[in-house]
Write a structure and sequence with these properties.
The complex is a heterodimer of chains A (about 210) and B (about 270). Chain A has about 210 residues and is an all-alpha fold. Chain A contains ten helices and two strands; from the N terminus they run βααααααααβαα. The longest helix of chain A has about 30 residues, at about 145-175. Helices cover about 30% and strands about 20% of the residues of chain B. Chain B has two domains: about 5-215, Alpha-Beta Plaits (2-Layer Sandwich), CATH 3.30.70.20; about 220-260, Single alpha-helices involved in coiled-coils or other helix-helix interfaces (Up-down Bundle). Chain B is built from seven helices and ten strands. Classes of the chains: A mainly alpha (about 210), B alpha+beta (about 270). The interface between A and B is large, with 59 and 53 residues.
Chain lengths: ~210, ~270
């Protein structure tokens, strides 16, 4: 990118969205670490580092609740914009073009591309599954056995889907797409970036901003 | 040497001395239960009540009879509580076959309750840890028999070497069959690799009548979690991490100046398939 000072800054995420995103990220990070610790005895050392298994068993569900609430806030804010349009559906069939940087073969994206939208819906579905099964596992003495048996397998399954897609998300947001991190940390992007990654969104911005 | 308890249910008179002995030896505070019209002390096991004599009232051949059973930890060879426990060192199988809970390592998740096919462990709501019969590991360690065995007045309960007890149980079964109880047999469920609490039952083909599960196994969802789900998860986590790394090595980051623009929404409408 050219000299940032010379570029026009396009607001991408406002403070509300950034705080929301990072609260989700931090609570997810903690819940993932503690969850992995309780998932496999080989990873139990994580619990030891974070204050011991007894403490982790107490904190993991509460942090999970924080995460679920933040995801609810996120759904309110973003769900409407996450619906797949016709371009997105074409985009999904050409995902390999995106991965191999053949951008000319891709239909234009709006504020979020189809991959980001899929991440959003994956996380929403996983969060719902994690929250319901996690709630059952939280209070074993009050929950029916059949639900506990179901949850003991459903909770790690949903977590695997969730963590795997977040690993991809972290890679995309850091190494794979330069300057995208700035959008979530500082809230703005520059024109070239917007036009390249989110042409339809950029067009909407252009229409209401005379530049 | 594997030790075991043999419970000859045909000799139980329902005196509940074993319940008292268990409470006394383990220094448990007794909490009042609910009276629900049964001779049974409590409807269920509790975190501070590890040994319950069940007065199973059963209609048999037009008459009501009590099928007594002693409800407690079965000390399974293949223990479901241990399979489900996420805290290393919280559930320890001793060399003599006892499944012992080590409370300083217990994190109170209650997974052992879910993993146990006999629904035995209970969470203490104050300490937030799980409790159950220890087979009096603090007595057996110094050559004493468990408290319930010691106190049993009818020899319904026997403690000893497991193989020896199995032989005794066989002999007793033969006796019962000779007495006309054709269905007499031993309860030693193989689905959990056999238990170190063995029963002689008059109606061995219907253990449910005694409140014992017919074919207990470690719940398949627990096995699924500890087996395929764990492998799948590790594969997906590492696969994704390495996949992302090598994607970067091969393709590098996205670069608007090199990779050609997507069709501009402004200039031309997107192509429909």
């Amino acid at each position: 990118m050219k000299n940032l000072e010379m570029e026009i800054r396009i607001p991408r995420f406002d403070a509300y969205e950034r705080v929301m995103h990072w609260m989700a990220a931090l609570s997810f990070f903690y819940a993932t670490l503690t969850g992995l610790a309780l998932w496999s005895p080989k990873l139990y050392w994580i619990a030891t580092v974070l204050g011991g298994g007894y403490h982790v068993r107490g904190s993991h569900p509460w942090v999970g609740v924080v995460f679920a609430v933040v995801m609810g806030v996120m759904a309110r804010r973003w769900a409407a914009g996450m619906r797949l349009d016709a371009d997105d559906r074409v985009w999904l069939t050409r995902m390999h073009k995106y991965a191999t940087h053949d951008h000319a073969a891709l239909p234009p994206s709006g504020q979020f591309n189809a991959g980001q939208k899929m991440l959003f819906w994956t996380q929403m579905a996983a969060t719902l599954a994690l929250f319901v099964s996690g709630f059952v596992l939280w209070f074993p003495e009050w929950m029916p056995r059949s639900l506990r048996l179901l949850s003991i397998a459903a909770h790690p399954l949903a977590a695997i889907g969730s963590i795997t897609s977040i690993l991809v998300h972290v890679y995309m947001g850091t190494a794979a797409v330069p300057h995208s991190m700035r959008a979530m940390l500082r809230g703005y992007v520059v024109q070239d970036w917007a036009r390249f990654h989110h042409p339809k969104w950029y067009k909407t911005w252009r229409a209401s901003n005379d530049v | 040497m594997i030790v075991a308890k043999l419970i000859d249910t045909t000799l139980c008179i329902g005196c509940k001395a074993c319940e008292v002995a268990c409470q006394e030896w383990n220094d448990q505070e007794y909490t009042m239960g609910t009276f629900d019209g049964s001779y049974q002390t409590k409807p269920e096991l509790e975190a501070n009540f590890w040994n319950l004599i069940k007065f199973n009232e059963v209609e048999k051949d037009g008459a009501t009879s009590w099928l007594m059973s002693k409800y407690q930890c079965m000390h399974c060879a293949d223990a479901g509580c241990l399979a489900a426990c996420p805290a290393p060192g919280a559930i320890v199988p001793l060399a003599n076959g006892t499944i012992d809970f080590v409370h300083e390592n217990c994190i109170g998740c209650g997974y052992c309750i879910t993993g146990c096919p006999f629904d035995v462990p209970r969470l203490n709501s104050t300490t937030k840890k799980a409790y159950k019969c220890t087979l009096c590991s603090d007595r057996t360690a110094v050559g004493l028999e468990p408290a319930c065995i010691k106190t049993c007045p009818t020899n319904c309960l026997t403690f000893g070497e497991r193989d020896e007890l199995l032989r005794m149980a066989e002999t007793r079964t033969v006796e019962l069959k000779a007495d006309g109880f054709a269905d007499a047999g031993i309860y030693n469920p193989q689905g959990v690799g056999g238990t170190n609490v063995l029963y002689v039952l008059k109606h061995a083909s219907e253990p449910e009548q005694y409140g014992l599960p017919k074919d207990p196994v470690i719940p398949w969802t627990v096995s699924l979690w500890k087996g395929p789900i764990k492998w799948m998860g590790m594969l997906m986590f590492w696969g994704t991490i390495f996949g992302a790394f090598f994607h970067f090595v091969i393709y590098g980051p996205q670069d608007p100046e090199k990779h050609g623009h997507p069709r501009d929404a402004e200039e031309e409408p997107s192509e429909k398939p």
